[in-house]
Amino acid sequence: MRTLTVCNFVTIDGRYEDDDHDIASLFEHHHADYTGTDTFDHYNAGLLRAAGTLLLSGRRSALGNLGYWAGVRGDPSATAIRREFAELIERVEKVVVSDTLTEADLAPYPNTRIVAVADARAEVARLKTLDGPGILILLGRILWNDLMHAGLVDELHLVTFPLIAGGGVPLVDARPPVALKLLESRAWPESGQVLMRWRVDPAAPPLP
Question: Is the whole model's pTM more than 0.90, yes or no?
Answer without folding.
Answer: yes
